[in-house]
Amino acid sequence: MLILNDVHTSYGPIEVLKGISLEVKEGEIVTIIGANGAGKTTTLMSICGVNKVKKGGIHFLGSDISNVPAHDIVNRGISQVPEGRRIFPRMTVKENLEMGAFMRRDTKNFDDDFEKAYALFPILRERQNQMGGTLSGGEQQMLAIARALMGRPKLLLLDEPSLGLAPLFVAKIFEVIKELNKAGTTILLVEQNARMALQTAHRGYVMELGKIILENSAKELLNDPKVASAYLGG
User: Fold this and answer.
1) In whole angstroms, what is the distance from residue 102 CA to residue 71 CA?
2) Does domain 1-75+188-234 have CATH number 3.40.50.360?
3) Each residue of 76-121: pLDDT tens digit?
4) Residue 166 to residue 44: CA distance in whole angstroms
5) What's the pTM value of the predicted model, to 2 decimals?
């Protein structure tokens, strides 16, 4: 479904991605783990067209999207839940969800999609007329995920979905990730909670200083002594 081949991305003169290659197959949950500054978020931003690829290629469903504008990439079926949630604080929950469907041309299924979002996160139904900025951190993360789903993505990019959340919300978010995948959504997950990510994903990549240094099944990475020592707390 998604293939990155020798991708290089820079911020000005600073090269952040130094030739990364990875693959996400349809129906998978794939995770990228690594320390702060490894290039995980830049990878997602490159996929969704925010950061331009300097060298190499990104292919999605057989088409080269390396230099495609971000809004067109959304239309092709990729939605991102950004780090820090970035909901619209002065819009209501329902208006935030409507913004998630802004690029869609079909409007006849909106009601069904609202119902799916509310079934996934019942608290959002209760809060649908409340301003997004008044929600708790966990509720905002739920809203950010639901907003992305309103675009009906084929591939969902999740950037640090557990960041700053209480353990109860973290457990709920990862339950939802599994549920979405079982329902047919392919997921690329960037997550600092490496243990939780590897327990959820099918396969994983380890990034370090802009390069992929290790790839394997999630189970094998969980049992790898080097990964355990560096990312799982020993």
Assistant:
1) 10
2) no
3) 999 999 887 889 899 999 999 988 887 766 766 778 888 999 999 9
4) 25
5) 0.93
